[in-house]
């Protein structure tokens, strides 16, 4: 589909164009509600910003990723009804929305241009991604055509997300006369993503001498978090406008279009630290998972350790103190320091706080198990029983009060199986599931710069599950500063054990860590989902068979 716009006549004043980037949080599957959001945002963009064009994220009509909802027989009917509503509204600005469209027997991830109550252009995404968390080729065919069309007297090219990462779509649009590219995105967050986007957009805009408007989705969807960060690069590769990450809103940008479409420069937000970015991602992920799934509140076990302390802070920042309940469940091995610190955290964040000893329940279970356990030596069985009793208490509170249980395991623990099935893994959402232990410490320090809510000794003392006398994590695992580096190489970068050893790590530490990762896949399959903040989390990203004979050495 190619429609060429005519450039402004030489000697005339540059054409002014105001584009509003609609960085909005949509709900997957709620096609009527998402359509309402588009209509409301467009009206506000017209009234508050006098928008000429409003650009929305990829697949905003269905939300992203819609997964197998795309296979539902009524999808086409519902999407068509939404597009008819948008046309019937006769909105003043032109709008560019993302929607799945069928052409013949094939379904396409599409951008739709609606202007003056009419669909004036359709673009089919040319490169549906099929890696990491993306599996678009399960649903979508590949588009083949360029769309460059006249919008308010300016030749505008349309692309969708992955198209900008590949050679072809931007280049073809520029060759077809586009002076402005509108790129619709649903690009999930990871810790280095915004920097990679900027490097790409700088190169693409400069090499093709075309300004690019990059509009990204914001909000949480299951394990994915979309960080927004919508931005504009001019034709020389200069970043001239950037929306804040993790913030819903309408962000206008003015263009003066003559030989080029030159955006008017804006003040740019400060680049957030890694810790700030990750913390914001966790807050958004928890907020949207709880709210979009209709939970009234959350409950979590507060142990006095650093993982539960950070989880509690994230939960309060996401939902407010009145929707968070913390429960300390001490046992004979729980230190007085843990009791004191857990209470201090609950008081600092002003949440409902309960203390329920698991001692009587443990004794009752052990009495029942006395006969079958006779003649055996205490081991991890008794340790796991403590964790499982705590899980039963939290799940009971969840059932009774409609609260979602937040688990507190971090990525390092999930990787090596340092967790108890149906115990500390019992719950609905694991806030720190993709956060390595070393980063958990940094997040605690960052959160305390906002307000002091985590006692310093929680950050500085050696981590312990406190399931046995004088227990420390490092009795069972390499130190986290070493373990996290090994796990990064093995889990996220696919290094073999031999290759990790060649990086300077001890053979004993590497073999131990790699073996633990491999044998605990069955646990991770049964773990709750959690916020993805890395390029490769446990979940959609990493799909290893539980039963396999692969040898991890080479």
UniProtKB/TrEMBL annotation:
Q: What's an example GO cellular component term for this entry?
A: cytoplasm
Task: Locate the residues binding L-glutamine.
Answer: 131, 187, 193
Report which superkingdom the organism of origin falls in: Bacteria
Alphabetical GO biological process terms: NAD+ biosynthetic process
Sites where the protein binds deamido-NAD(+): 384, 413, 523
Keywords, alphabetical: ATP-binding, Ligase, NAD, Nucleotide-binding
> What are the binding positions for ATP in this chain?
301-308, 408
Identify a single GO molecular function assigned to this protein.
NAD+ synthase activity
Q: What class of enzyme is it?
A: ligase
Q: Where is the active site?
A: 58 (proton acceptor), 125 (for glutaminase activity), 161 (nucleophile)
The record's listing under Gene3D superfamilies reads:
Carbon-nitrogen hydrolase, HUPs
Carries keyword GTP-binding?
Answer: no
Give start and end of each CN hydrolase domain: 17-257
Q: Pfam families, alphabetically?
A: CN_hydrolase, NAD_synthase
Its pathway, per UniProt, is: Cofactor biosynthesis; NAD(+) biosynthesis; NAD(+) from deamido-NAD(+) (L-Gln route): step 1/1
Q: Does the keyword Nucleotide-binding apply?
A: yes
What's the Enzyme Commission number for this chain?
A: 6.3.5.1
Give the catalysed reaction(s), semicolon-separated: deamido-NAD(+) + L-glutamine + ATP + H2O = L-glutamate + AMP + diphosphate + NAD(+) + H(+)
The UniProt similarity line reads: Belongs to the NAD synthetase family.
Q: According to its UniProt entry, what is the function of this protein? A: Catalyzes the ATP-dependent amidation of deamido-NAD to form NAD. Uses L-glutamine as a nitrogen source.
- Spell out the PANTHER family in the cross-references: GLUTAMINE-DEPENDENT NAD(+) SYNTHETASE (PTHR23090:SF9), NH 3 /GLUTAMINE-DEPENDENT NAD + SYNTHETASE (PTHR23090)
The protein depicted here goes by the name Glutamine-dependent NAD(+) synthetase
Query: Which species does the entry assign this protein to?
Result: Marinobacter nitratireducens
């Amino acid at each position: 589909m190619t429609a060429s716009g005519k450039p402004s006549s030489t000697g005339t004043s540059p054409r002014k164009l105001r584009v509003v980037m609609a960085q909005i949080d949509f709900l997957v599957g709620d096609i009527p509600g998402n359509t309402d959001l588009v209509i409301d945002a467009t009206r506000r963009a017209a009234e508050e910003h006098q928008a000429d064009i409003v650009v929305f994220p990829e697949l905003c009509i269905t939300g992203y990723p819609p997964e197998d909802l795309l296979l539902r027989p009524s999808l086409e009917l519902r999407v068509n009804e939404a597009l008819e509503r948008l046309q019937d509204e006769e909105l003043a600005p032109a709008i560019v929305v993302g929607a799945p469209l069928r052409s013949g027997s094939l379904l396409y991830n599409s951008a739709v241009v609606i202007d003056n109550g009419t669909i004036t252009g359709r673009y089919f995404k040319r490169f549906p991604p099929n890696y990491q968390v993306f599996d678009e080729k399960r649903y979508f065919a590949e588009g083949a055509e360029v769309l460059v069309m006249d919008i308010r007297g300016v030749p505008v090219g349309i692309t969708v997300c992955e198209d900008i990462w590949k050679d072809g779509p931007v280049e073809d649009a520029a060759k077809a006369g586009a002076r402005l590219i509108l790129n619709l995105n649903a690009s999930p967050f990871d810790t280095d993503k915004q920097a990679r986007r900027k490097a790409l957009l700088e190169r693409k805009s400069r090499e093709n001498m075309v300004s690019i408007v990059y509009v990204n989705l914001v909000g949480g969807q299951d394990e994915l978090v979309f960080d927004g960060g919508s931005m504009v690069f001019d034709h020389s590769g200069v970043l001239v406008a950037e929306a804040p990450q993790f913030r819903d809103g309408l962000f206008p940008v003015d263009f003066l279009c003559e030989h080029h479409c030159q955006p008017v420069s804006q003040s740019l937000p400060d680049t957030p630290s890694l810790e700030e970015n990750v913390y914001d991602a966790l807050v958004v992920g928890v907020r949207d998972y709880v709210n979009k799934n209709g939970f009234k509140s959350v409950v979590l076990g507060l142990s006095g350790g650093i993982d539960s302390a950070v989880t509690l802070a994230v939960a309060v920042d996401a939902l407010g103190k009145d929707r968070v309940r913390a429960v300390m469940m001490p046992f004979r091995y729980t230190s007085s320091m843990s009791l004191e610190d857990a209470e201090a955290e609950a008081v600092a964040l002003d949440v409902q706080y309960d203390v329920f000893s698991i001692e009587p329940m443990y004794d009752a279970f052990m009495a029942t198990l006395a006969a079958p356990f006779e003649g055996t030596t205490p081991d991890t069985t008794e340790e796991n029983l403590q964790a499982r009793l705590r899980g039963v208490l939290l799940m009971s509170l969840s059932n009774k009060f409609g609260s979602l249980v937040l688990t507190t395991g971090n990525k390092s623990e999930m990787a090596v199986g340092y967790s108890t099935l149906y115990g500390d893994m019992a719950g609905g959402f694991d806030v720190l599931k993709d956060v390595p232990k070393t980063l958990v410490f940094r997040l605690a320090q960052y959160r305390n710069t906002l307000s002091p809510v985590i006692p310093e000794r929680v950050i500085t003392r050696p981590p312990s599950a406190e399931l046995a006398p004088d227990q420390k994590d490092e009795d069972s695992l390499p130190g986290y500063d070493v373990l996290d580096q090994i796990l990064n190489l093995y889990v996220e970068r696919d290094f073999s054990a031999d290759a990790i050893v060649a990086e300077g790590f001890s053979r004993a530490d590497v073999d131990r860590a790699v073996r633990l990762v491999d044998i605990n896949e069955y646990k991770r399959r049964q773990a709750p989902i959690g916020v993805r903040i890395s390029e490769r989390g446990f979940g959609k990203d990493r799909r290893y068979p539980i039963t396999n004979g692969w040898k991890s050495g080479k």
